[in-house]
Amino acid sequence: MLLPVTTHPSRLSVKAQPLPPNSVVWGKQGEGEALKRSQQLAWASAFRSQLQAFDYEITEIEGVLPEELKGSTLFRNGPSRFERGDQRVAHYLDGDGYIAKIAFAPDGRVTFSSRFVKTAEYAWEDAANAFGFRTTFGNAKPGGFLASLLDLHLKNPANTHVVPWGSRLLALYEAGMPYRIDPYTLETLGVEDLLGQLVEPVLPPSRWEMMMRRSRGQQAMTAHPHVDPVRDRLVTWSWGMAAKLGEPNTLIIELIEYNAAWEEMSRRQYSMPGAAVNPHDFALTPNYYVFFENALSFDVMPFLLGQKSPADCLKLLPKPTKVHLIPRPDGAMAGVGPLVLETDQWFSIHQACAYEQLDGQPDGQVVVYSSGWPASEGGFLTSWGGYAPNFDAIAPTFLWQTTLNPRKKSVVHRIAPGTENCCIAHPHVNPNRETLAVRYLYMPYCNNIGESSPPVGYLRLDTQTQQRQVWTMHPQSFAEEPVFVPRAGGRADGENEDDGWLLGVTYDYLQDRSSLMLFDAADIEAGPICRLWFTHHLAHGLHGSWSPVYYGS
After folding, report:
1. 98, 147, 275, 490: which could join 499 in a potential S-S bond, CB 3.0 to 4.6 Å?
2. For Fe cation, which residues are the binding ones (predicted)?
3. Are 475 and 447 in contact (CB under 8 A)?
4. In what order do the strands lie in the sheet with 96-104?
5. Global model pTM greater than 0.85
């Protein structure tokens, strides 16, 4: 369904009252419904559309910009257009992708630029000023039951991630193919076909053609590729569902590794029989690809009949979560068969990192850090829908540590020590440590009482000492996923692993605008060392990447 624009908080005259510092008001803390309502209104304000394309120099800068960041670029992506005509998307994750670029010039100037990713569906809807497609999370096709019946084409909003690699910049969405973006102008260039070719996006001419594409296992690419810094490769994967009448679906994954020139270094296929949906993320070690397969069922008939979106058709099952250890083609375990282990039920969302404890053996333990939800049953993704995610209906997100022993075929799965009561989101490590043992993890921080609430700061975990550093804003400011930037020339081993900066975009309701905060990664609890204020708000975004290349225009 679509929501009428007039019912949304951004169109109401009600203003949230300022809250005292360090208030945690969303969950069951008992600080009063009035305080909670104030934070809810502020949170809803972070999900207003930002429709303007910007190009300007950032001049309001607090603190000092580190010299080492000059000559580099930060990219962010997230949904930013939620309305067409008099309708709003039913789920914010169906909003159109919007790339923001903060370019740090060699001479110290900082510029902000932004553009929408102009997918084929975006162009159609922009011309019509109306929604025209079914979506993954909530929108039905306008026109009633018959319009959506057997129409299996889903809109690609290209709104989840943006990744620079080699000379290319890709806007990613896990249920569609990537769009290539010009990193200097942010112009949308076309669809990347994973064979090195740029192709013109073409909407399916008929429902029959789309059904044929689905039956052939039409491919999409993950929104979460990972970089192996040791081998200097981008590791990504595409996926499609192979369906046979009367048999469970089989998820087919194609894993591909590229060097910086976008030359294919390896490719292998892997199947997950009975998987209801693709994993959202994965992890990488020197010898393995690591996938968590959540226990889900997919009720296909309401989707085929146009009655429900794919997300509405998914249900969590009271079954173990599977872990797939898939040997990399040129690793020490090449030629060894994949291994599937199980954990107690939970829901895996993002993988921060994975590494191996070899102990002189090629099949040593594999340690994985992830974010995810504790065990539950029934529908779940729709609780993130509506105008903005409603934390009264959302399970808290925790940081999880999973230790896999291939020799013993055993698993130890638990909330990461030191974060037992911390609600968090989107954990990351120093990118130079991907595939290697890590000591420090960084993530948005919500609270330390085990409740579900919006992210209002950042947390650093020392996995050796289990000590954490926390920095928070006032409770009507909200933090996005951080990006770790290693110091130029700095090492990423031993005690130098935290030698760099944490970059995070935040929204301040009281000023109704967003900013970029920079932290010393070794001391985030000291607060930002630099803050760059934008002249406007940004809708709460999803993921981003940093490049050591200056892509200013």
Report:
1. 490
2. 224, 280, 350, 543
3. no
4. 55-57, 110-116, 96-104, 72-81, 543-547
5. yes
Which residue numbers in the chain have pLDDT < 50? Answer: 6-14, 27-28
Q: What is the pLDDT of residues 413-440, one digit of tens each?
A: 999 999 999 999 999 999 999 999 999 9
Give how far Cα 364 sits from Cα of 42, 352, 368, 411, 441, Å: 48, 20, 13, 13, 22
Identify residue 59 by its one-letter amino acid code.
Answer: T
Cβ neighbours of residue 258 closer than 8 Å, sequence gap 6 or more: 165, 166, 233, 234, 236, 264, 265
Burial class (CB within 10 angstroms; exposed 0-12, middle 13-18, buried 19+) of 108: exposed
What residues are designated binding site for Fe cation?
A: 224, 280, 350, 543
Q: Would you state the pLDDT for residue 6?
A: 46
CA–CA separation, 551 and 90 (whole Å): 35
Contacts of 86 (CB under 8 A, 6+ apart): 4, 5, 6
Sequence ranges of the binding site: 224, 280, 350, 543
pLDDT at 361: 73
Rounded to 5 degrees, φ, ψ at 146 are -70, -30
How far is the C-alpha of 383 from the C-alpha of 402, rounded, in Å?
A: 26
User: Do 459 and 469 form a contact (C-beta atoms < 8 A)?
Assistant: yes
Enter the DSSP assignment of 349.
Answer: E
Q: Nearest CA to 534 among 59, 47, 114, 115?
A: 59
| Calpha distance 386→32 (Å, rounded) | 23
Which pLDDT does position 28 carry in this prediction? 45
Residue 371 phi, psi (nearest 5): -105, 150
* pLDDT value at residue 408: 93
pLDDT of residue 233: 98
Q: Tell which phi-psi region holds residue 526, choosing left (phi > 0), alpha (psi between -120 and 50) or beta.
A: alpha
So what's the pLDDT on residue 9?
46
Closest by CA to 298, choosing from 275, 273, 271, 270, is 275
Q: What's the confidence (pLDDT) of residue 553?
A: 76
Q: What are phi and psi of 237, to 5 degrees?
A: -155, 145
For residue 271, what are its two tokens?
Answer: 């199947």
d(CA 372, CA 402): 12
